[in-house]
Amino acid sequence: MEILQPIVTLLFFPAGLFVMGNGLAYLWVDRKLVAQYQNRIGPRWFQPLADIVKLLSKEEIVPHGIDVRLFNGLPVLALACALTAALYVPLAGLPPAFSFPGDLIVTVYLLSVVTMGLALAGANTADRFSLIGAVRTLTQLFSYEAPFMLALLGPAVVAGSWQISTINTFAGQHWMIITQPIGFVVALIGLMGKLELPPFDAPEAETEIVKGALTEYSGRGLALFQLAKSVELVVGLTLIGSFYLGGIGNPIEFFAKTLGILLVLAGLQSLFARFRIEQTAKWWRYASLLLLAQWLVIALLGGKTL
Amino acid sequence: MPTLEKFIVPIGPQHPALKEPGHFEFTVDGETVTAATVRLGYVHRGIEKATEDRNWTQNLYLLERICGICSHTHALCYSLGVEALAEVTAPPRAQAIRSLVAELERVHSHLLWLGVAAHEGGFDTLFMYSWRDRETIMDVLEGLTGNRVNYSANVLGGVKFDLDDKQIDAIKRGVDYLEERTHHYYKVVTTDTTFIRRTRGVGALTTEQAEDIGVVGPMARASGIARDVRVDAPYAAYNMFPVNIVIETAGDLEARFVVRLKELYESYRLIRAIVDHLPPGDLTVRMPRKVKEGESISRVEAPRGECFYFIKSSGGEKPERVKVRTPSLCNFTSVLATAPGHQLADMPMILAGIDPCFSCNDR
């Protein structure tokens, strides 16, 4: 029986199937909310799942002039990284399935690998939209990565730990959105940049470069990338919820806090016109500077007192 | 070893940014566009040639189908040309109704454009809202003519329908609602920071450039050229209901948004004036089956600019030649002139800024 528990954890609950289902459900919530904000009806609840099932059952067209192994491997790598990252966060309000000191860094890097996979997938093909999409994806990665990481490290420094579960427990007594509001905002917008949500969707702006890095993907590859992104959404929401909104200790807190953030995210998505890629890059310079200023304040006031 | 190969980004003939087929090639250096070319003609349907096999009345319905957005413009321009050849003048009430439908059409076209242009800039909320409000004017047009597009309001020598009080009420209510909404859109377009950063100074066309290229319609008026057929050579009822021309001088995308939105106010004013002061009288005059030999030129201010018809008759039941020149053709080259030096991300908006109508253009 000893062996059974890790298998269930990895494949079904709380990681594996649960987090994928959760991601698709949140994707639907996001789409529905944006639709409502835009005075549309929006998709039915099973639409994201139906999209994935449809894409998985379709023929995958492999373009000429590419490395086929990379083409097939990258979507799997991206999904695997997103799912692995999910193991270290308090999914569904339960303690993280795996935990060790320093897992915050690992999680953040695993999430970056998802984006790297996306960019590589674009750079791997000879398609011009994909190439531009790949360049933009990487530009955006470099722009948001530093501030996003700084925003997540803020609570870590205050809690005095690099372990997500420890920070989560510490956050249970401290609502860090009050003491580090800039960090919260930057983390939120960093997540939007990571997920390439509007208005930071220049890397996949359909009116310019079709689907950006994923233009050549159809069928299975596209489905896996989308699954990876929806898992990334859940992981990102959980991280922000647990760090800034007073920790996540039980399922009710989990759903209330993550959905609350998603509500704000959907609002932000429907408020703005798309940023050009160089505008995005400029934005993040200010975000980093603001965060560093906040860090300075934290350091001056002395970490744990906050 | 440095390569001299150019990196060309093709947009079209099939591309999510284009609702109709056209082909643009943008040579880019990183994200910056260095050169642009255009190729048109993907929706050529041979309509001009087809007119030569149909009689004068049939052609009215054929030509109306050149464009799904400014269909009334084409039918009106053709009717004016044929009426000039036949030496027939439509009665004043018919002329007023023609102008009314033309202005309603301008409102729906400009609102449609606002949505499309916002969508190209990644501002889908504005797109959804403006298209929702556009339904008001579509309903008004449907109540008036029975059709949402291809209204077939014209017949040779007049119009097909009259207005009753109920319809006038519906028009007024619709226009009141839209005027209120237009205030909101005007505010968004001129004050929203993210949107202004995508429009201000983008695709700027100086007055000299605009003169050289010969742009028409809102494009010309956004670059400081007072060019409007409704003012320069009034047709239909624009003598009775004069138009105040809207001019901006910046010539950039923001100016084009402002010009089109201010033209909406002007259209609302005209629509109200026309329904309040409809001249009494007949709707049609008798039109001969055969049209006298001769040539005529007629011009109408379409929502996109000057629409031009040349009609030649050899005295029979069918035209000898109908030549159509639509405003989009005059404006396409401005995209090529303004594109170099801009970001690739600006291209869809610059392209949408001229309100291109490929289907009109190719016929």
Task: Supply the key terms.
heterodimer; A: 306 residues; mainly alpha; 13 helices; 71% helix; B: 363 residues; alpha+beta; Cytochrome-c3 Hydrogenase, chain B; 3-stranded antiparallel sheet; 14 helices; 8 strands; globular
Characterise this structure.
The complex is a heterodimer of chains A (306) and B (363). Chain A has one domain (18-305). Chain A contains 13 helices and no strands. Chain A is mainly α. Helix content of chain A is 71%, strand content 0%. In chain A, helix 6 runs parallel beside helix 13. By secondary structure, chain B is of the alpha+beta class. Chain B has a single domain, classed as Cytochrome-c3 Hydrogenase, chain B. Chain B contains 14 helices and eight strands. Chain B has helices spanning 47-51, 56-64, 71-86, 92-120, 124-145, 165-191, 193-199, 207-213, 217-222, 229-232, 253-276, 327-338, 347-353, 358-362, and strands at 7-11, 23-29, 32-39, 154-155, 158-159, 294-302, 305-313, 319-325. In chain B, strands 1-2-3 form a three-stranded antiparallel beta sheet, covered by helices on one side. A three-stranded antiparallel beta sheet of chain B has the order 6-7-8. A two-stranded antiparallel sheet of chain B has the order 4-5. In chain B, strand 4 and strand 5 (158-159) form a beta hairpin. The radius of gyration of chain B is 21 Å and the shape is globular. The interface between A and B is medium-sized, with 28 and 33 residues.
Write the layout of secondary structure elements.
The complex is a heterodimer of chains A (306) and B (363).
Chain A (H helix, E strand, L loop, with lengths): L3 H8 L5 H21 L9 H11 L10 H20 L15 H22 L3 H32 L4 H10 L2 H4 L1 H14 L11 H4 L10 H25 L6 H21 L5 H25 L5
Chain B lengths: L6 E5 L11 E7 L2 E8 L7 H5 L4 H9 L6 H16 L5 H29 L3 H22 L8 E2 L2 E2 L5 H27 L1 H7 L7 H7 L3 H6 L6 H4 L20 H24 L17 E9 L2 E9 L5 E7 L1 H12 L8 H7 L4 H5 L1
Antiparallel strand pairs in B: 1-2, 2-3, 4-5, 6-7, 7-8
Helix pairs in contact in B: 2-3, 3-4, 4-5, 4-11, 4-13, 5-6, 6-11
